[in-house]
Design brief:
mainly alpha; two-stranded antiparallel ribbon; about 5% strand
């Protein structure tokens, strides 16, 4: 009979103990403690279990590492001091929960690289031991192999790995220097500084240059295809009908499914009309919605509008939301979308949305600030609308389509600038996108 090890088990939550994963179903009620799935239970169990370096910060212990499955490279993260210190710094820098996945991705990449280079050089035991001038050439070779360099063409198969590793090795080197200063370890500090001095020239002349050449080659070969106007119109009508249908259903009685469908349709219609990024629409806050303004007869440009234009302008509300890099970006809301959002907000309590959830499209979940994911919702609804090419109905292609139309309509600089400000798209990026499509 196979002997069971303590590491093979998972600790309980309310009922603390060690249990086999395939036996958890018998203790599900005792383990729940707010978790609604087996994934949530295992996450809570890993949080209780601990098994992490003592220098790990609270966010690392509760928000980052418990959500990473205990693979070989994740075990390295848990006990490697330099990786833990880097994680602590990232958690301090990026405090918002939606950025936690980015932190996990960074930690995972460097841990997989550490696992990879340990097989090449046995004297490397942890990430800090990499910072030795005698390991310089082996680090360069390991980066080439890890990013799958093609020796014949000189291009990386996965350039992201190479560029991200060069950046992270430099960042972690600075963290290690600070740690050496604190511990008064001048010998190690000197080695780290010498290693980084070698990397400064080597990374720039070798790795980063090859990464840039690979990216240029991939961009040149990539074919840009824009969504069809007919598909966009079909998608918009589909969303409008979906909003009307679910408002009608909810006017009779509350149904959780109808409420969710209405919230999803309003979210995507808002993104489609404004051509915003998915992340900007995900985190559309109630405070911003309540600050919505409407055009009035006292507005300076109102009198210059025709009768039809005045009527059309009154249909839209205007507010400002937080965009990329924490910039303020404008948002227009049609009457139909506003009606839908008002119904969504009206039934928040019945949908079990936390009163502390700040988002218009908030949903119930383990976290009080859980919200719909616009990328996933758009992918689902674009398949349902009957478009010929639903795979093109995505945030970035839609934004490129708008930029291309500006060029085709030969708008003057002022009009183009107004649209770019609305989309929060830089003039340089706009010009680049248009030139790629023309040439």
């Amino acid at each position: 009979m196979k002997q069971r090890k303590k590491e093979d088990g998972t600790p309980g939550l309310l009922k603390v103990g060690w249990y086999k994963k395939n036996n958890l179903r018998h203790h599900y009620r005792d383990f729940q403690d707010g978790a609604t799935s087996s994934k949530g239970i295992l996450t809570k169990a890993r949080r209780i279990q601990g098994k992490i370096h003592e220098r790990a910060s609270k966010p690392m212990r509760h928000k980052i590492l418990p959500y990473m499955k205990l693979t070989e490279h994740v075990k390295l993260i848990r006990y490697d001091l330099l990786i833990i210190l880097f994680g602590n710094e990232e958690c301090t820098k990026y405090r918002k929960r939606n950025l936690a996945q980015m932190i996990r991705a960074k930690l995972s990449l460097i841990a997989r690289f550490l696992l990879f280079i340990k097989k090449i050089e046995v004297s490397i035991t942890d990430f800090a031991s990499i910072y030795d001038p005698k390991h310089y050439y082996k680090v360069i070779d390991a980066i080439h192999q890890f990013a799958e360099l093609d020796e014949e063409t000189g291009y990386y198969k996965i350039p992201y790995r190479a560029s991200e590793l060069t950046t992270n090795i430099n960042k972690r080197g600075l963290i290690l220097i600070n740690e050496c200063i604190i511990n008064d370890d001048l010998e190690k500090k000197s080695k780290v500084e010498n290693f980084l001095s070698l990397c400064k020239q080597g990374f720039a002349n070798v790795v980063n240059r090859m990464v840039e050449e690979t990216r240029i080659m991939l961009q040149r070969k990539k074919e840009t295809e824009l969504p069809l106007i007919a598909d966009i119109n079909r998608f918009s009508k589909f969303l409008d009908n979906r909003i009307d249908e679910n408002i009608e259903v909810l006017s009779e009685k509350f149904l959780r499914r109808a409420w969710r469908d209405l919230a999803e349709a309003c979210l995507i219609q808002l993104q489609l009309f404004n051509r915003k990024r998915a992340g900007e629409m995900d985190r559309f806050e109630l405070d911003d919605y309540n600050k919505m303004k409407f055009i009035t007869e006292k507005e300076e440009g109102y009198r210059s509008l025709s009768k039809e234009e005045k009527q059309k302008a009154k249909e839209y509300g205007h507010t400002v939301i937080q965009g990329k890099l924490y910039k303020s970006v404008p948002l227009l809301l049609s009457a139909k979308v506003r009606d839908g959002i008002n119904v969504v907000i009206k039934y928040r309590k019945e949908a079990h949305i936390s009163s502390k959830n700040p988002f218009v499209f908030g949903i119930s979940g383990y976290y009080k600030d859980a919200h719909l994911c616009a990328s996933n919702v758009m992918r689902k609804l674009s398949e349902l609308c009957g478009a010929k090419k639903p795979e093109l109905l995505r945030g970035t292609p839609l934004r490129k389509q708008m930029a291309t139309k500006c060029s085709e309509m030969q708008l003057d600089l002022t009009q183009t600038s107004t649209i770019l400000d609305m989309m929060y798209l830089s003039t340089r990026k706009y010009t680049s996108n248009v030139l790629k499509l023309i040439f």
